[in-house]
Amino acid sequence: EVELVESGGGLVQPGGSLRLSCAASGFTGEDYAMGWYRQAPGKDREGVSCIFHRSGRLYYGDSVKGRFTISRDNANNTLYLQMNSLKPEDTAMYYCAAVKESRYGYCSDSGKLYGMHNWGKGTLVTISS
After folding, report:
1. Residue 25 CB coordination number (10 Å)
2. What pLDDT is recorded for position 28?
3. pLDDT at 123
4. pLDDT value at residue 29
5. What is the bridge-based pairing of β-strands 123-127 and 10-12?
6. Is 15 helix (H, G, I), strand (E, B) or coil?
């Protein structure tokens, strides 16, 4: 069973930075694409960024391009999201997700994963002065 645990959320002033982490377990030697989503109050869940397991190909949603950087450490099964130049509109619950890579499980160029999602419980990011 895949388990994902996010950490690193908090309160940051506009223009500040934050780094989220997601510790994964249960991949059992298979390749999983991973990604970050966010959901602001009253809004739909939005794909932020995703990354393939071996190739490291990665993609971003338009709203975070140039400000956020996704990375992963496969040796330690950890996913990261470095967030810079944060804005109040970045305030949201941030979720880590993973999909087993296959014809139907992949990271799309919109920054969203496709396939059967495994989800973490989320970490709250608040951008406010």
Report:
1. 11
2. 86
3. 98
4. 85
5. parallel
6. coil
For 59-110, what is each residue's pLDDT tens digit? 999 999 999 999 999 999 999 999 999 999 999 999 999 999 999 999 999 9
The two tokens of residue 56 are 């490291």
> DSSP of 25-85, one letter per residue?
E--TT--EEEEEEEE-TTS--EEEEEE-SSS--EEE-TTTTTTEEEEEEGGGTEEEEEE-S
What does the block give as tokens for 99?
Answer: 């999909």
Give dist(CA 32, CA 99) in Å, integer.
Answer: 5
| Arithmetic mean of pLDDT over the chain | 96
The conformational region for residue 68 under phi > 0 = left, psi -120 to 50 = alpha, else beta, is beta
